[in-house]
Write a structure and sequence with these properties.
Length: 185
């Protein structure tokens, strides 16, 4: 397990606001070159209407951490997302978002599969995540403070976990956690 502190996250801009890269794999990959197998990030959607960056060949998972979004998938329908609700869509689709929010993203390329999950913990509550052999997990503490396997976590800190093993998270204050799980095929 390795801590991914807030200070180490790369922040860049996109048409709707800013995006914070929590983790990219392989670690020497460059998002701009699209040479990653998977990427975990959180984006601030600051405009009432924005176009998502086209990502051909990428499966996208998105979950709202605060605010609300309506995603319009040109030719593929639409989806309304409130806090901790999620959807999966193709990076090939022209996607427009309506509303302002902070979201959590998992981007997967060929040879990887994965999912995301959000969790609220009240102060003093704990939760255990189990990781299987060959699985990687990236946990983001979005809101609050806590401890994970005796590591102190503040807002925006992340953890990289590799299976097999367990991650025990205990909330020191009310928390919102986001977890991306990835398995390479």
């Amino acid at each position: 397990m390795r801590k991914l502190p807030r200070e180490g996250h790369k922040v860049s801009t996109w048409s709707g606001g800013s995006t914070t890269q929590v983790y990219i794999f392989p670690e020497e990959a460059d998002y701009g070159k699209r040479d990653f197998l998977f990427r975990v990030s959180s984006a601030g959607v600051d405009c009432d209407r924005s176009d998502f960056t086209p990502l051909p060949g990428v499966e996208r998972h998105i979950m709202v951490l605060n605010g609300a979004l309506r995603l319009l998938y040109e030719g593929h329908g639409e989806k309304d997302l409130a806090v901790l609700e999620q959807d999966t869509f193709s990076g090939d689709w022209h996607t427009v978002s309506l509303g302002q929010a902070q979201d959590f993203n998992l981007m997967l390329r060929e040879g990887t599969k994965g999912c995301i999950r959000g969790l609220r913990l009240k102060a003093g509550e704990s939760h255990t995540f189990t990781f299987f052999p060959g699985e990687k997990g990236v946990l983001l503490l979005y809101q609050g403070s806590g401890e994970a396997n005796q590591l102190s976590l503040s807002e925006w800190d992340g953890l990289l976990c590799q299976g097999p093993g367990e991650l025990n998270v205990k909330a020191q204050t009310d928390c919102i956690l986001a977890l991306a799980r990835v398995q390479q095929q």
